[in-house]
Fold:
Amino acid sequence: MLHFAFTRLISLSLSLIAASVVIFSVIEIIPGDPASFMLGINAQPDTIAALREQLGLNGSLLSRYFSWVFGMLTGDFGISYTYRVPVSELILARVWISLPLAIYALVISTLIAFPVGLIAAANRGKPIDLAIMGTTQLGVAIPNFWFAMILVLIFSINLRWFSAGGFPGWDEGLLISIKSLTLPAIALALPQASILARIMRSSVLDTLDQDYIRTARAKGLNQRQAIWRHALKNAMIPVLTIIGMQFSFLMAGAIIIENVFFLPGLGRLIFQGITQRDLVVVESVVMLLVFAVITVTFIVDLTYAAVDPRLRRK
Amino acid sequence: MIKLPRTLIFGGILFFTFLIGALISFLWTPSDVEILNITSRFKLPSTVNWFGTDHFGRDIFSMIMVGARTSIAVAVVAVGIGILVGLPLGLWAASHHGHWVDDLIMRGNDLVFAFPSLIIAILITAVFGPSAFNAIIAIGIFNVPVFARISRGGALSIWTLDYILSARVAGKRTFRISVEHILPNIANLLIVQGTIQFSLGILAEAALSYVGLGVQPPTPSWGRMLADSQTMISFAPHLALFPGFAIILTVLGLNLMGDGLRDILDPRIRRARG
Structure:
């Protein structure tokens, strides 16, 4: 297990280094001069020179890269050009919307997918299975931002049960805040729930074909008891892996959904950074999201190996 | 004769309806999508404007036809990039199994896989400027490791077969064996995966266009139509409904086609069914 964890840790570190090099190159090298890019075509030369000084662009590429990376490691993400405050402050203020949103969506997705996948597997080939598979096929095809708009149309505009967007802040009360994250979380969760339900179904069905289930049935257990007592535990291993991976998709997917609901989270911060050409913000927030995604995948890999010894031996 | 799976027939009908619509739009659309007609804006669906008109009075049916062109073109080229770069890499890795070339290609693959594709696609289009070309590159890059992995996996199992050994004994070189013997045998895998990546490409293009980083106006795109409709959804929901249905039906069609093709092209599933 230690050897597996060590090799995965090296792979994680390499991925993070590669990610930082790619992001640094895309932001700081490819567009030419970042200061000119941020200030636009009408900027005066002395303004550009001042910004270059402020951003530390006069140093060599290598020294800039290392100071960016070491800065992030110590929590210094630089100063936002448009907000004039440390980027770490902006991130801290917004992560408390994006993170709960992703977790909320994950909970909804799991709560829907588990029973739905189980019901489909237990009724293989029957009309209810076909109906569930058809619905999940549709769920995978629906773009979450369109689904979000339809949810707003029905539940905010017509029924007036939820607000159409915005976030009151956690200080205003837990319930109100959770309520304002409900429609975005449902919109995010739908495609993931569809994928998860399909994986849950096929995983349970694979397990049901195993010899030990036949033995359990031969001992007198009915289908439901066999699923509940034996198949479910073993079917859960691949399902848990997918749930872990989905967290990454949800963090990334939140970028678009936050824009539909005008939620002041990290996704909206990226887009504001893009429209205001605030490369310092874009660079740091993108790196942070990539870091979150790669690290979650690493933790999932380790958990999977801890649960399933076969993987450690590979 | 092989009985075609129902999923393939139904999916094919859905997808080819949009493909034919996109092709016809090069020659004819019910009305010109670049001509604004403010006096007839927000018209509900009627016999004249089948899907109604938008906030500039443009015919939504015509815009969906032209938008299909954009979505399909972006997704096709993005899948093409994936195959053109990923396939040779996968075949190369498989022909050097256990060699450092194989390791290097596969570790590079893992790295690209580890990146959250949507975030990087947004970053690329933001820095290089929003355009169809940059959207294609951003989506295409993430297709490369998918095709590299699938072609390497398929090729590895074929490299162990006796007829490949015969080809080697006959003096054929690795490159020739890969092209003449391996490639035709993994074509099925590539077709099925290509359909799946195609549908993901349509969704990714719609998402990028929705946030303003894809095809730029006045060229219609389904994602852009949805973005425009967002502030008007309370009084003109048809502006959002029709482009949304177009995306869903195209993606659904491609996914069903992928399922159906897998059923007839994958021998393991064919045996299990038959």
Q: What stands out?
A: Chain A has a mean pLDDT of 85. Chain A touches chain B through 43 residues (CB under 8 Å). The radius of gyration of chain A is 24 Å. DSSP finds 13 helices and no strands in chain A.
